[in-house]
Amino acid sequence: VYQSQNKYDEASKYHQDALNIREKNHGRLHRSTADSLNAIGTIYIDKKVDDEASKYCEQARSILDSIGSSTDHLYASCLHNLGVILHRKKNGAEAKKNLLDALKIREQCL
């Protein structure tokens, strides 16, 4: 809710709290931890702080890769977010690859 109201500091605080709880309860290599990391990444995307956004989204993607969840909608979300960041950084070819891979996964999830 805070993020949709452009209240990024509040949104970031709650997502960071959720990340801390999830890491404590489930450990670093868990899908819910990756979900929190990706959510924090989207805040930075909205704020146009692409280096931070990329860091969080890439951590989430890496966790999902390592636990064998590279074919679910959260992985697709990470790829999409990374594609948006790459597009803004004028890396069109890599952005397109990420976005198309995200689309394929989302189609398979239907």
Describe the overall structure.
The chain is mostly helical and 110 residues long. Helices cover 79% and strands 0% of the residues. It starts with 7 loop residues before the first helix and ends with a helix. The model has no long low-confidence stretch (mean pLDDT 97).
Mean pLDDT: 97
Query: Between the first and last Cα atoms, what is the distance in angstroms?
Result: 26 Å
Relative strand content: under 5%
Secondary-structure element series: HHHHH
The main pleated sheet reads as: none
Considering DSSP H and I runs of 4 or more, what fraction of the residues is helical? over 70%
Class by helix and strand content? Answer: mainly alpha
Number of strands: 0
Rg (CA only)? 14 Å
Unreliable stretches, pLDDT < 50, 5 or more residues? none
- Bulk shape: globular
Number of helices: 5
Which descriptors would you attach to this protein?
single chain; 110 residues; mainly alpha; 5 helices; globular
Write the layout of secondary structure elements.
Elements: H1 8-26, H2 31-47, H3 50-66, H4 73-88, H5 92-109
Helix pairs in contact: 1-2, 2-3, 2-4, 3-4, 4-5
In short:
With 110 residues, the protein is mainly alpha-helical.
